[in-house]
Design brief:
mainly alpha
């Protein structure tokens, strides 16, 4: 998921440099959404790992 966010970020940068504002905005929005989804997923898995660690001991 982070890989896709980086890819869309690069696409947004290239589109912005070439003057395609609409495509750049859409790609940046998708990249931002995927990045925040990735952060939420990481936070959930960290909490689950901490809870699983406490349950074993």
């Amino acid at each position: 998921m982070l890989t896709w966010a980086i890819i869309f970020g690069v696409v947004a940068l290239i589109a912005a440099v070439l003057g395609f504002g609409g495509i750049a905005g859409a790609a940046a929005g998708i990249a931002k959404f995927l990045f925040f989804l990735f952060l939420i997923g990481c936070a959930v898995f960290v909490v689950l790992a901490i809870m699983a660690g406490n349950a074993v001991t």
